[in-house]
Amino acid sequence: MATTSQPKHKKTGDLFDNVWTIPNLLSALRIVMVPIIAVLFLKGQTIWAVVVLALSGLSDFFDGKIARRFNQISALGKILDPIADKLTQITLAVVLFYVFWKADNESIHAFAWVFLLFVVKELIMLIGGAVMLAFEIRPGAAELPGKVATMVFYVVMVLVVAFGPEVGAFRDMLFTLPEAVMKVLVVISVILTFVAFAFYLPETFRQFKERFSKNKKS
């Protein structure tokens, strides 16, 4: 009995080891930015919303670089980073669905539903992550497809909210992204998002299988 309870204690304890690191603070800052981005958009302050979104994307890029460069990778960081990503993506997708749904252009109005695909995928990931933690299974770090999908998502969404027709903050000042180009970019981001999701499934199933097999043996 003592040999089985000790690893469990270690798993929960090391979650809070090496907490106060720059990458963890950046991830926490991105979580704080989520409601700010939503409020700025809904209040029509789209330029500031773009600025905060760009800062959020940059912090997401640099926190991983800093963690690896200065050996500041932590168990909590592996949880905070994807949570910050998912909350940002869900919030931004919901906001853009709302903005596109209100558009006068019928084509853009109909395209609004595409953003709900991001919401569905991220909600599945959040629920799955919560279930894994409930079974004391630590979600793995983001794989390359996930990192690429997240980077493309940030780039595409910044382009949409900055230069998209009817919604872009700078569309009248600089240039307007052609509607067809905007739609293609969003669809590419959706595809990459679900490809990344598919890459997580085999490892997730393996961890659950391993966990349940250990429970049966004990």
Describe this structure in words.
With 218 residues, the protein is mainly alpha-helical. It has one domain: Up-down Bundle (Four Helix Bundle (Hemerythrin (Met), subunit A)), CATH 1.20.120. It is built from 8 helices and no strands. Helix 6 packs parallel to helix 8. The longest helix has 39 residues. The N terminus is likely disordered.
Task: Offer a few descriptive terms.
single chain; 218 residues; mainly alpha; Four Helix Bundle (Hemerythrin (Met), subunit A); 8 helices; 0% strand; globular; disordered N terminus
Total count of strands: 0
Characterize the biggest β-sheet. Answer: none
State mean pLDDT (0 to 100 scale).
81
Sketch the topology as an H/E string, one letter per element: HHHHHHHH
> What would CATH call the class?
Mainly Alpha
Low-confidence sequence ranges: 1-13
Can you tell me the CATH superfamily? CDP-alcohol phosphotransferase transmembrane (TM) domain
β-strand amount: under 5%
Give a brief description.
Helix content is 78%, strand content 0%.
Topology:
Layout: H1 2-13, H2 22-42, H3 46-69, H4 75-101, H5 106-111, H6 115-134, H7 144-163, H8 179-217
Helix pairs in contact: 2-3, 2-4, 3-7, 4-6, 4-7, 6-8, 7-8
